[in-house]
Amino acid sequence: SQNPAQLQSSSIAHWYSDKPVAAVLLSIESVLKNPDTAIAWNNLAALFNMCNLETKSVPILKHWLEKLPQSSLLLNNMRQAWLGLGDIPVAAGYLKKCLEVDSLNPEANRSMALICAKTNKPQEAEEYTKKEQQITQRESTVKQVEKITETRLNIYLIYLKNPRIPKENFFHGIGLEKFV
Q1: Counting Cβ atoms within 10 Å, is residue 175 exposed (0-12), middle (13-18) or buried (19+)?
Q2: What's the pLDDT tens digit per position in 129-141?
Q3: Model confidence pLDDT, tens digit, residues 72-85
Q4: What percent of the chain has a predicted confidence (pLDDT) above 70?
Q5: Cβ–Cβ contacts within 10 Å for residue 29, how many?
Q6: Mean pLDDT for the chain?
Q7: Do 158 and 130 meet the contact criterion of CB atoms below 8 Å apart?
Q8: 59: nearest Cα among 73, 50, 48
Q9: What whole-number distance in Å separates Cα of residue 32 and Cα of residue 123?
Q10: Which alpha helices (DSSP H) does the chain contain, by range?
Q11: Backbone torsions φ then ψ of 168, nearest 5 degrees
Q12: In terms of C-beta density within 10 A (0-12 exposed, 13-18 middle, 19 or more buried), how is residue 127 classed?
């Protein structure tokens, strides 16, 4: 009796409740109720990717990318599907297309940072990490890149360059500098 949006929400809740089968079935039901919605199909494909059913997600994403070739969401999920299938060159191609469309896509920048770190390109890995940190504040990416490249990234400088982080001194504004 739920509408497609409610089914999508229920699907996500079931996924996070460690009920992947129920999540996929609810997502399929949502798609069946509203088959002309790219986001519903994309979510289903993402669930297939997370359940190691990438062969199911590739045709879905391919179909929608023909209609919406500039969708960074679809491109990133296609990259994830091909990565799961073990085809790194095809996955990297979709990753590059995704970053051409959306240079600040956090997931794509995270993946590119890790690829650069693994292929011994520490400066490029740091640049992609900085781009990711402009949108998200995931310290885990910084730690992974540091571990792989054996290079210390200055996370403080990355955060300082983030335009989303306020530059005001809030401690001064409320008088906390008076305390020792």
Answers
A1: exposed
A2: 888 877 776 666 6
A3: 999 999 999 998 99
A4: 76
A5: 16
A6: 84
A7: yes
A8: 48
A9: 46
A10: 4-16, 20-33, 38-50, 54-67, 72-84, 88-101, 106-118, 122-135, 139-149, 155-160, 170-173
A11: -70, 155
A12: middle
